[in-house]
Amino acid sequence: FPVTIGGGYGNLPMQELKNNGIKVYAHTGSGEAKSRTADKLFAFNNARSEIYCKFAEALNPNQLGGSSIALPDDPELISQLTAITVKINTQNKKQVLPKELVKEKLGVSPDKADAVVMAWAAGSKMDSDGSTWIEKRGSMGKLPTTYSSALNRRK
């Protein structure tokens, strides 16, 4: 589970999840971005901009192989995702609309969009680095094959 720790509010829930054996990925939106756009033309002004722009790139159906992401038919989620616009700032970096302005624009916090994008960003680690983890650990352990089996495992 990704946990946002911006402003320090996520530290206690994150520690509690870890104490209960749940794998947690910390996300600080104001943190430093670590990559560039797929075309390598732009950097990002912070981690929040990075994951939103990378998510938008991953949604592109015209990329080689198309997009592997299937969003649910949820008007609230789509509204939140499309309200978060991108601009090129004065430092020539991609920057998404600040969350406070998204809240003003929508009248609500974009919590669904944040949850989907952060979960995608944390989940992509297995896609990109899984073979390295397996080499270091010898295996990834037994992974649940369905959502219900994952829930049953936690009981």
Measured by DSSP, the beta-strand proportion falls in 5-15%
Largest sheet: 3 strands, mixed
How would you state the average pLDDT, rounded? 81
Number of strand elements: 5
Poorly predicted residue ranges: 142-155
Number of helices: 6
Strand order of the largest sheet: 3-5-4
Radius of gyration: 17 Å
The share of residues in helices is 40-55%
Order of helices and strands: EHEEHHEEHHH
Helix and strand content put the structural class at mainly alpha
Label the overall shape: globular
Amino-to-carboxy terminus distance = 17 Å
Offer a few descriptive terms.
two-stranded parallel sheet, 3-stranded mixed β-sheet, 48% helix, mainly alpha, globular, disordered C terminus, 155 residues, 5 strands
How does this structure look, described?
By secondary structure, the protein is mainly α. It is built from 6 helices and 5 strands. The strands form 2 sheets. A 3-stranded mixed β-sheet has the order 3-5-4. Strands 1-2 form a two-stranded parallel ribbon. Helix 1 (11-19) links the parallel strand 1 and strand 2 (25-27). Helix 2 packs across helix 5 (111-137). The two termini are 17 Å apart. Mean pLDDT is 81; it is low at 142-155.
